[in-house]
Amino acid sequence: MSDSIALWRAEHANFATLLDLLEGELDLFHKGGSPDYELMLNIMFYMTHYPDVLHHLKEDLAFARIKEREVNARPLVDELTEQHAHLKEFGAALVRALDDIVNGSIMAREHVEVPGRAYVAEFRSHMQREETAILPLAAKLLHDRDWAAIDAAIRHIDDPLFGKNGEVRYAALRGQIAREALAPKAITR
Ligand SMILES: [Fe+2]
Ligand SMILES: [Fe+2]
Question: pLDDT for 8-61, tens place per residue?
């Protein structure tokens, strides 16, 4: 497996961890508990500043190359590209809902729960579709020179949460991720 495909999968695993955390907060909310809005906003800040900005952009460039080489993949690529735009809209809607709650302008729990559940479901199904349908095609059709061209075409940013030089703003979120990783699943929620 090329490094690029391995990195692609690793990023999906990171996003899945964050979606689990987000869902945990929504579950808490649903049961009448007090969710950690700060944590949820930090997760969404990351989602809208790394996956939306770099991961999906890189995928769009990889998809364009796949589409050129495999005519049958065109409908799938169009579907996934469209989902990137939807995820951006869903993410923005969730951030707005969280801001409303934090600012105290809206108190109804459905206000966050509905866009939160929609975001988690849409992101998970998108990654699932990519893992099963497009990653195998990318592994077959894209070579090192393609990945080099893709990397050269985008402005690289280090992953601000999971990267080596993680940003300070995510310190609390990193701590939560580490605690979740150590906690036995049965008693985490
Ligand atoms: Fe994607
Ligand atoms: Fe992806």
Answer: 999 999 999 999 999 999 999 878 888 899 999 999 999 999 999 999 999 999
Which ligand lies nearest the alpha carbon of 82? 1
Q: Quick check: pTM over 0.90?
A: yes
- What is the 55 CA–ligand 2 centroid distance (Å)? 6
Structure tokens at 143: 């070579």
Residues 6+ apart with CB under 8 A from 9: 131, 135
What is the rounded distance in angstroms from the CA atom of residue 63 to the CA atom of residue 58? 9
Q: For ligand 2, an ion, list residues with CB under 5 A.
A: 130
What is the C-alpha separation between 90 and 27, in angstroms, rounded?
19
d(CA 141, CA 120): 30
For residue 184, how far is its CA from the centre of ligand 1 (angstroms)? Answer: 30
Taking the centre of ligand 1 as the mean of its atom positions, its distance from the CA of residue 71, in whole angstroms, is 19
CA 29–ligand 2 middle distance (angstroms):
28
Count of alpha carbons within 13 Å of 135, Cβ hemisphere only? Answer: 19
Contact 126, 87 (CB under 8 A): yes
**Ligand 2 midpoint to CA 112 (Å):** 24
Block residue for tokens 């030089």: 165
| Region of residue 156 (phi > 0: left; psi between -120 and 50: alpha; otherwise: beta) | beta
